[in-house]
Structures are given as structure tokens and as C-alpha cells.
Amino acid sequence: MEQATAIFADQVTLSQLLQNLVYASGTVGAIMVVAGLLMIDAGTTRTANLYNSTIEKMVGFFIGFTTYYMIGFGFWAGQYYIMGGATMMDSLKDWWFFGTLANAHAQNVDPAVWPGLNTFQIFIFFLACFAGIVNVLLHFSVSERMKASAFYITCVAATIGSAVLSWAVWGSVGPLTNAGFHDFFGIGFVYIFPTGIAMVLVPQLGQRPGVFSPHPKVPVYQAPSIGLAATGVITVFAGLPMVIMSCLFFVEPEAYAISVTMADTSVGIALNNYALAWAGGALTGAAISYYTKNYIYLLFGPLAGYVAGAPGFDIWLPWQMFLIALGAPFGSWLVYSWTFRRGIDEHKLFPLFIGAGFYGLMMIGLFKSGTPRGGYWGITEGPYAYQHGQISLMMQLAGFALCLGAGLLMGFVLSLILKATTGLRIPTEDQAEGLDKLKWGLDNESRG
């Protein structure tokens, strides 16, 4: 006769449900971000490669999504296991695809074993979306030039690498965050890491036909719909507020909000910082665009403001955030101009995540040094005491270097393996002919 299972009501209270809904909304926001990114791609990718580029991004997203469910979450959760005296392997055993906690009903798990289990299970979904987004962003750098097989292999490796990095640089008790590195939104392991991979792959993939010099079949590379790309930018803007809510912890009394880094903040401040980061970036981007007569900065501007602000949405004041965001597009402008003059065919990740991302992390180190954060709520002494760690410029530099360096190393190793196995690059003539026609029988350009 089957024994009755104990019910732990503390795991399924109304308060728990409200938190579950907050974090579930973050997954909705992340999926909206994916939709926005696909719109940006559809608006800026040559028509002859449009379907192939879109479908590779979608497949790459779900490769990352599934890989994260298989093994990724245990790496991030491992910081809390180590804090409690357990090991990373204990975390991986509990949270891998067939793990005990990943497959348990919350009401049947004693809160003494793992409180708030529903929330952590939803967080698998939330972070799996961002594992997929890592691959979508990477594809922006290599689309139309990299073999699909090579890209899909890269997606698996990039997902695992990003998951390991999240343990180190995002949360509150990972080794770098506990020591003083501050990155509220996780741009290090989501944005800067794939940029490092791209920095290795892009020079080996070369230029696309028509981008810098005419090709007999592609006299000039034409973006089919800048308006659609702009709509994609606004879709990203619409989705991210829900994601920001998922980067907050809610603790007693009532729904007191602290950031995932354990810094003092509030829901209103975090969301208004986000809003003003976009506004400041958009205004400067528009000014640069009118000055240079180049439409790209109208798209870069709000994104640059967001990327620069994201590491500190929890600690800036809104007026400070606006001023920081006003300067962000200049960093993207400098990187874009430098790469364009040198014929480097990468116009998205490098300007945004090297230009604006580095700038944003350094602004925190310069102007918020000494801000208390790190540790864990309720711990009053020891290496994980609540807010024992302080932001420092050196730790901001260290975090940026680790994330970019990890990407560079992975890109180097992958390029060696892929060139010796599947091959890396699509031949130039195939690129010029159009991958939609060659792979899928779609003659988009001749149909107009």
C-alpha cells in the first residue's frame, strides 16, 4: 500500500504564489526579447538569407534552452550549495534534467530542505531562456557565413560556458560577486561572453558579399526593413521590465525588494532606471545619427543606454542613470567606427557589448565603489554575511576580463575543433547565391 505523501503548506502559500507569478512573468519578458531580436534580424538581414538566418536563430535558441534544462541550472544554483557547505556536484545532482529537486512537487518538499521550491523551478525556465538568447546574440555575429552544423555545436558549448560563468559573476555568493563584482542584470555571462566567442570567429569567417565591397551577385548589401528592426527594438523594450522584476528577491517584511546581488533597491527605482537608460541612450543615439547621417545609431542608441545601465539598475538613482545612459552611445559609436574602418564585419555585438557594456561596468566601479552588497539575506557573519562585500573598480575590471576572456578561450578552442571536423565557413559563392535558395528552395530576392 502506497504511503501518503506529506504536504508542506509553507511551500504553497498565497505569498509564494505571488512570487511565482512575478518570476513567471520574467519568462514572458524573456520570450518577448527573443521575438524582438528576431524582428531586428529580419529587418537587417539580406533577403536571400532571411529564412535561413531566422531558423538558425530559433534552433540555436532551443538548443541552448534544452541544454540548460539538462545541466545548466545546477551550475548557477551551486553558489548557494557551496555557501551552505555542500558542493557543486551536489547542486548538479539535484538540478540536472533528472534531478530530485528539478522534478519534485513543491508541496511535498520540506522547506528545511529547500524553501520556495516553485520559484527556483521557475527560475530554470527563466534562465534557460537567457541561455537561448546567448546563442541568438552569437548568431547575429556569424549568420550568413557560419555552417549550421558548426553553429549548433557552438550553441551547446556556449550554453554550458555561460552557465558556469553565471555561478561566478551573477547572484550574490558566487566567487566574483561575493568579492565585489557587481552586475545586476547579468550582462557579463549573457552579453559579453558570446561577444568574446564572436571576436575569435568573425575574423575567420570573413566579410559577407556586398557589405564592404561589391560582389558580382551582390553589388551592395541591403537591409530589407529598417522599420521592422526598429519595431524589434521596441519589442525588446516592452519585454525587459518583467525580466527586471525577476532579478529581485522579495523577503520579509511583506515584499521588501533587494536585488539579486543583495544590494539595497526597490521595484520603482529599478524600473525607472531601466526606463531612463533607454531614454538617455535614445536621445544621444538620435543626435549621433543625425550628425553622421547613419540610421544605425538610432537603433544602437536605446540599446546602448540599456546595456550600459543594466549592471546597475539596482544601485543608480534615476537621474544618475539618465546621465550615464547619455554617454553610452558614444562608446558604441567609437567601436562601430573603429571596426568599420578596418573592414571587420560585425556591427552589433562589438559596438553594444564592448563599447556600451564595458562603459557601464566601469561607471559602476568609478561612481559606486564602496556600495555594500553581496552575501545572503539573514546571514550576519562570516564570508557570506549579508552586504559584507563592496563594489570596487578592480573587481569590475576583473569581472569584465573573466567574461570576455572565457569567450575568447572558448572561441579559440571551438574554432580549432570545428575547422578540423564539420568545417567553419560557408563558401563565399554560396553566400552570394543566397542560402534560402540553396538550402530551402526559396528564391526571395527575385520575388521582391
Describe this structure in words.
InterPro entries: Ammonium/urea_transptr, NH4_transpt_AmtB-like_dom. This is Ammonium transporter. Belongs to the ammonia transporter channel (TC 1.A.11.2) family. It comes from Pseudogemmobacter faecipullorum. 64% of the residues lie in helices and 3% in strands. It contains 15 helices and 4 strands. The protein has helices spanning 14-44, 50-83, 88-95, 117-142, 148-169, 175-179, 187-205, 226-245, 267-292, 296-309, 318-341, 349-367, 393-420, 428-433, 435-440, and strands at residues 248-251, 256-259, 372-373, 389-390. The strands form 2 sheets. A two-stranded antiparallel sheet has the order 1-2. Strands 3-4 form a two-stranded antiparallel sheet. It is globular.
Tag the structure with descriptive keywords.
single chain, Ammonium transporter fold, two-stranded antiparallel sheet, Ammonium transporter
Look up the CATH topology: Ammonium transporter fold
Segments where pLDDT lies below 50 for 5+ residues? none
- Average per-residue pLDDT, rounded, comes to 95
Principal-axis shape equals globular
Brief summary of the model shown:
With 448 residues, this protein is mainly alpha-helical. It has a single domain (9-437), classed as Ammonium transporter AmtB like domains (Ammonium transporter fold, Orthogonal Bundle). It has 15 helices and 4 strands.
